Amino acid sequence: MHTVILQHVPFEGPGSILTSLERHRGTVHTCHLYLGEPLPQLTQCDLLVVMGGPMSVNDEVEHPWLREEKRLLGEAVTGQTPTLGVCLGAQLIAAALGARVYPNRHREIGWFPITATPAEGEMFHFPSSAMAFHWHGETFDLPDNARCLAASNACRNQAFQVGRRVIGLQCHLEATAETVGLMLTHNASDLLTEGPYIQDPGVINAATPERYAEINALMARLLDYLLAGLSR
Questions:
Q1: Most exposed residue of 62, 74, 100, 141, measured as fewest CB within 10 angstroms of its CB?
Q2: In what side-by-side order are the strands of the sheet with 101-116?
Q3: Please, which residues have CB within 8 angstroms of residue 14's CB and are 6 or more apart in sequence?
Q4: To which CATH superfamily is domain 2-227 assigned?
């Protein structure tokens, strides 16, 4: 099994996703788009993981590679390549499928619960309620044929699924103490804005190892779901 990770900035990496993928005993390649590295060929990709970043999906002038990335994601969905989008990655999948991405009413930064929405049949089932880490200012409309899987008080669309092989997450279930620390360092200006869903850095850093273990276990279960039944 071969996984390709699309990374948009050096400080928002895959976190616990790498640990989860080790159990599948495959190879992993990270495509650093901010360095101008070429996009992968989907024919050689068993799993596509699209990470976060501080830019908007609409910033195509500043980041022209966004156009080709969205084209690739549209092809991945059409071809049923198992695909996971995290934060910006979820917004990119939504945009690639024709949905609108725009500023959310509230910035959501810190630890806040998500609540599952009813999931049917073979769709991925979130726990009824789970704590998650968040860092975003934009949101998206659901693409056509997508089903919402989870919501939070600040953001209606926290997770969605398209078909059997594509899931987008607005929240960061892959977060570790290290990745959160990097986001606090590089995105510190985001915390200068006041809002009901923006936590103090001290509160964010107070998260226990057990809290990280819980969200990382949920991410591992989600990856197992996306990869179930793959023969190669």
A1: 62
A2: 27-32, 2-7, 47-50, 83-86, 166-169, 159-162, 146-151, 101-116, 129-140
A3: 5, 7, 30, 49, 51, 174
A4: Class I glutamine amidotransferase (GATase) domain (3.40.50.880)
Whole-prediction pTM: 0.96
**Mean pLDDT of residues grouped by 10 in the chain (232 residues)?**
96 97 92 95 94 97 96 96 98 98 97 92 94 98 96 98 97 98 97 95 98 98 90 46
Question: CA angle, corner 108, sides to 105 and 114, nearest 5?
Answer: 105
Q: What are the structure tokens assigned to 62, written together? A: 């500043």
State the chain's mean pLDDT as an integer. Answer: 96
Distance CA 83, CA 40 (A): 13
Structure tokens at 127: 């726990």
Please name the amino acid found at residue 116.
Answer: A
Q: Determine contact, residues 13/38, Cβ cutoff 8 Å.
A: no
Whether the CA torsion 208, 212, 215, 217 is positive or negative: it is negative
Where do the structural domains in the chain lie, given as residue ranges? 2-227
